Amino acid sequence: MRARVHSWLGKTSLLLAFLALGGCGRDPDVATLEGKVTFGGQPISSDFVVTFYAPKLGIGATALIDGNGAFRVAGPIRRGEYLVMVDYPPPPPGSPGTTASKQRVPFHAKYKEERTTDLRIHVAAGRNQVELDLKP
Fold this sequence. Notes:
The chain is an alpha+beta fold. It contains one helix and nine strands.
């Protein structure tokens, strides 16, 4: 009888530990983010990155844009309100040349900086798909 109780307690403890470590449900604050960036209705080139910054949360994420204008933020992102910036990726540390923020872009330069961009998105819990169209 005692062996049965210990066996049952062991199995129950293992199940409770599994559930406590994330085996049930999802974090309601976590989301995924992907989408497409266009300029004048056409996909922008893979020369750019898209950056998302949530000033109230003090966090951000960056994703490379592929040749079809598509991007996917690697890993989860917190839900919230984000500013969106698009620019050339920064050069590798220590490399000579122009910094990304000084290079001329084919779209309006306001999209390059946090203080000037008017692109904003709301990221909800779960999967988020956004379409961003940059203006000249």
